[in-house]
Every structure is written in structure tokens, then in C-alpha cells.
Amino acid sequence: MKRDLLKVVNLTKSFGGVRAVDEVSFEVAEGEFLGLIGPNGSGKTTTVNLITGYVKSDKGKVFFKGKDITGKAPYAIANIGIARSFQMVRPLYQLPAFKNIVVALRSPRVMKEIRGGKYGELDDIAIDLLEDVGFERDSFVPYKLASALPHGYLKRMELARCMALRPDLYILDELFSGMSMSEVAATMFIIEKMKQGGKTVIMIEHRLRELFRVADRVLVLNFGRKIAEGTPKEISESNEVKKAYIGVEVELA
Amino acid sequence: MVKEGYRKERLDRGIKARCDSIFMLTSYREILYMLLPRVLPIAALIIIPLVLEVSGQVYWQKVFILACVISLLAMGWDYLASVGLVSLGQALFFGVGAYIAGALNHYLKWPIFLTIPVATLGGALICTLLLAPIIRMRGIYFGMVTLAFPLFFNRIIEATKLCGGTEGLPGLTQFPTIWVATYLIIGALLICLFAFRRIIDTDYGMVLRGIRDNDRAIMASGINIYWVKVQAIFICAAAGAFAGAFMSHHIGIVGMSVFALDMSIMPVAAVVLGGGGTFAGATLGTFILVPLSEFLRAYGTLRIAIYSLVMVVCVVGLPEGIFHYLQRKYHQFDRWVTVEAKE
User: Fold this and answer.
1) Which among B204, B209, B224 is the nearest to A95, CB-wise?
2) Is B16 inside a domain boundary?
3) Where are the domains of chain A?
4) How confident is residue B343, by pLDDT bands cut at 50, 70 and 90?
5) Suppose B283 and one of A181, B35, B49, B71 were both cysteines; which one would form an S-S bond, judging by CB atoms 3.0 to 4.6 Å apart?
6) Angle (nearest 5°) at CA B230 between B98 and B220
7) Can you give the pLDDT at residue A121?
8) Looking at the domain assignment, is residue B1 inside a domain?
């Protein structure tokens, strides 16, 4: 049996009177592809924020590679090896696209591996990474200001920034939201390649068809509680999940 | 001015496009085009004191030195602003530097060439330690705390009679001649100007600008933004403390006025007038504001009224800042093109 990379125990967070995340526990094994789904406001993004340190938890612990990382600063967690993308894109609009990636390459985690980073070397690595996620190098897209790029590119730039950190665990927060059909298909190709490469991924997604194609295991949240867990097939047949998503139990004729 | 049926089009000048590659070195016109905006200001800075000396304007020589000092503070402000920290208390850096140099010279009789470096580094360190606890504050909250610090020191000195109290520390060693003082401060200004412009264009500078843009994205990239902000404060404080230490030796006395509100407001006004983010804009702004303010002394009480009016007209007329306007005119030309009517 593979060892657990990430272990979340009884994570709880309230905002005022609302229990955004309520006693959520789960594990992610090394090389596993975990899907995290749930209706809007069910606490998926808050769970990710709690794991990556953007929000302080009220209760509960997060273990990564057996070490307690609860309450560490976001940059420290990124350096330990958990890279996340944001649901709302957060690019550095004033900088060219490839410089957005260079910033991630300058983190202590990556600098240890690259050593030094002579003039222009980081730029080359960044542009290669951007090409991997579908930025056309020949049309100078990587050199454009982030503020001049369409939303689909910014989403993929988030993915490239995660890749730049060379993390042990990727957390992709609604990567496909706001992407066109063709962009989803292109990005799906990258995701499948990551899966084949044995990367450990937690993926939050509303596009269930794409998610179920790659996920090994799916976790369903509703009102901050974990309501179901299982293989994509089990989840798609679960009545409780249908109820959470649609509101009433429906008889499929 | 908007002409009916026309629209303004901005285009890069041909010469700017030609200067983008190494081939610019093959033509003296292109080389001149690149060098002039850099060499002319340096030459002006070096020549102006000589002209003032020849024409016997001792008073304006002092104004020129004051402008150099303020421009160091303004560039420091611009540097902090590039990390997204809005400081309203440049007087803190200035005053701490001034008092350290003054105290070392007055009580311990240290010579100038020791007090200025010690005051620069020591002052920067003290200011950084003072501001480090509030590094997590953003925007106006950080500004308010920095605004309070100089006032706090001002009153502390008055109440406790520390370092001479309201009398100040008189009889400090002065520079041997005015030339040493003038060219020392010009050298510091040029080093700061070009070093800051250089830093902001490196990958480290990208991180700085990124923090202002979106600090969460920088944290997600695994970079400790608080440590980077501390470094930025240290550099800004070092520039300010040097200016303060220089000033106390230049006028030979250090008093409570170094913590005055003027020292905090002038740099901000200069950057707003000159245009932020380029450091050259900050310098240009000070070299307009400081002489203007001295020139207006002839008008007595009306001085501040006229001064404010000029500020308002400039800021409304050129919200991007004078430097950005000049830069655009230098690199681009605009023309009116007809807009095809929508039928």
C-alpha cells in the first residue's frame, strides 16, 4: 500500500455563524488523483484555503508527508511542496506572462534545484513551461503582458505556475471554469499527461464528465460536510450526491 | 480636445523601434537618441552648482542641495510604493539618520566619514525594526502608522530633552567646502537613481512589483513576501537616513525639525507630480517642487496658496505625472486619424 502524502483530520472552519467546513477528514495517497466536488458554497475552496494556509482553521490538523503543517504560512507550504491554483485567476497583471512564472522559479524550493539562475536562464525555463501548457511561443504569447491575455490563458498560466514549483502535490481549484470547450479539451490533455506521469493531484471541478475521466477517487462535500467518497462510478450512482446537487431525489426512468 | 470624426492615434517613433536591437550601435543618431535622456540630466546635475557658483547665487546653491536631499527621500518612497507599501512618514528615516549622525558627532566626536555610514546603516536598521511589526498592514493602515512615528519621536525628544531637546545638537562638524557637500549628495542621488532603476528591472524587481500587484499570487509562488518587504523598507530607510545624516552635517545642527511633516509630505507630492514607478519621475518632481516652494517665498503668506494651486493644476492636467508625459512624447508621436462613420 502506498503511503499517505496528505492527511486531513477533522478540519473545521466557521465564518460567523456559517460552518464553511465541518469536521472534514480525508487522505491522499502518493500518485493518487482525487476529485473534490460539491454544490456551490459547499466548502471546497475553503478546504483548499485551509490546507494551503490562506485561512486559519478553527480545529483540525493537516499532515503532509507525516509532518504537521497546520497554520503554516502560505509561502512556507508552497515551499514544502503543495502548489495550488486559484479559482479566481490571480496573475501579476503588470508583468509579462513568462515573468509570472519566473517569480515562482525564484522560490527557495526551486532555486535549490536550479542553482543560481544565470541571466536569462529562468526566463528560458519559464517559457518552456508556458509552452507545455499551450502558450504559442511562435506568436509571442508568453511575452505579452498578463493583462492582455484572455481568461483561458490566465487559467493555464496558473497551472504553469504550479508546475514551476515542481510540487509533490497539486491542488487545482476549478481549473476549467470560464474556459471554452476547445480550451477544456486542450487542458484536459495536459491533465491526463500529469496523471500518466504519476503526479498526485487534488482537483476541484464542476465539470464532472472530465473529472470522472481522470479521477481515481472522488470526495463529495455539501454544507461543509463530507457526504460521500468513492470511485467515480460509485459517486455517479449515489442517490445522496444526486440529492445534494439537484435538491430532490429524482427517479431516473 | 476631441475633434469630431477624428481619433487620436499613438505610434512609436521609427527611431525607437530601431533602437530596440544591437544595430542601434551602427548609427550615431540612434546612439544619441538612447544616450541623451540619460546623459543630459547627469550633466545638468553636475553643471548647475558650477553655474550657481559663477553667478554668485549662494542661496540657490543651498536650495539645490535641499532638492537633492528631498529627492533621495522621494526615490525611497517610490521604491517602497513599488512593493505596495505607502509610506507617509519619510521624515522617520530622515530624522533617525540625522539624529544618529548628530549624536555620534556631538557626544563622541566621531568624524564625518564615520558618522554618515554608521547613521545610514544603523538608521536603516532601527527604522526597519520599528516598521517590521506592522509589515502585515496594507495600504492606508501602513501609511497611518508611518505617519505617527515621526510625530512620536518629535514629542519624545521635546518631552525628555533627549539629544538636546528643543535646542537640538549644535556645532556639528561641517563639510570642509560646499563642493564636497554638493558633489557627495549628487553622487548619492545618481547612485540611488540608477541602482533603483536597475533593481526594479531585474527578476528580484519583478517580485517587488508582483507583491504590489497581487501578494497572494506571490505567496502561492512560494516567496516569503514579508521578508521581501523588510528588505525594501531597509533600502528605502537607508536612502532616507543617508539624506538625514548628510543634512545634519551640511547645516551643522540637528534639531526637532528633521521630524517635521514637510519631510513626509514633500516626497509624496514630488512623486505624484513627477510620476511614480520610474524614480526619475520622483527626482524630476522634487527639482520642480523644491525650487518652486523657495521661489514663492517672495509672496509671503500667499506662498502656500499659490503652491497648492500649481500642484492641483499639475495633477489634474497631467495625472500620469510629468516624467511619464515627457517619456511618451519622446518615444511616440500622435496624430489625428479619421474615424469611419458608423452607418
Assistant:
1) B209
2) yes
3) 4-246
4) low
5) B71
6) 165
7) 83
8) no
Q: What is the pLDDT of residue B205?
A: 93
Phi, psi dihedrals of residue A138, rounded to the nearest 5°:
-70, -25
Where does residue B290 rank: exposed (0-12), middle (13-18), buried (19+ CB within 10 A)? buried
For residue B194, which of B184, B206, B202 has the smallest C-alpha distance?
B202
Do the beta carbons of residue B56 and residue B173 sit within 8 Å? no
Task: Give me the CATH number covering residue B281.
Answer: 1.10.3470
Helices (H) and strands (E) in chain B, counts: 14, 2
Confidence of residue B19 (pLDDT cuts 50, 70, 90): confident
Mean pLDDT computed over every residue of chain B: 91
**Residue A79: which of B214, B222, B225 has the nearest Cβ?**
B222
Predicted confidence band at A117 (pLDDT cuts at 50, 70, 90)? low
B-chain residues within 8 Å CB-CB of A90? 214, 216-217, 220
Cell of B267: 516626497
B12: which strand partners? B332
Q: What is the DSSP letter of A11?
A: E
Residue B189 within any structural domain of the chain? yes
- Cα-based torsion angle of the residue sequence B145, B147, B149, B150 in order, rounded to the nearest 10 degrees: 180
Q: Verify whether the Cβ–Cβ distance A78 to B220 is below 8 Å.
A: yes
The count of domains in chain B is: 1
* Domain ranges, residue B55: 6-338
Contact (CB, 8 A) for B318 and B325: yes
How does A151-163 read in b/e, with b if 16+ C-beta sit within 10 Å? ebbbbbbbbbbbb
How far apart CA B176 and CA B157 sit, in angstroms, is: 30
Q: Is the pLDDT of residue B234 over 90?
A: yes
- The number of helices, as runs of H, and strands, as runs of E, in chain A is 10, 10
Provide, as residue numbers in chain B, all residues whose Cβ is less than 8 Å from the Cβ of A93.
Answer: 213-214
The 10s digit of each residue's pLDDT in A204-225 is 998 888 899 899 999 999 888 9
pLDDT tens digits for range B136-167: 888 889 999 999 999 999 999 999 888 888 88
Correct CATH for A4-246 of 3.40.50.150, 3.40.605.10, 3.40.50.2000, 3.40.50.300: 3.40.50.300
Look at residue B319 and tell me if it is in a domain: yes
Query: Residue A88's closest chain B neighbor by CA?
Result: B217
Give the C-alpha separation, A205 to A211, whole Å: 7
Write out pLDDT tens, residues B33-54: 989 999 999 999 999 999 999 9
Is the C-alpha dihedral spanning A129, A133, A137, A139 positive or negative? negative
- Give chain B positions within 8 Å (CB) of A52: 220
Count Cβ atoms below 10 Å from residue B338 Cβ, excluding itself.
9
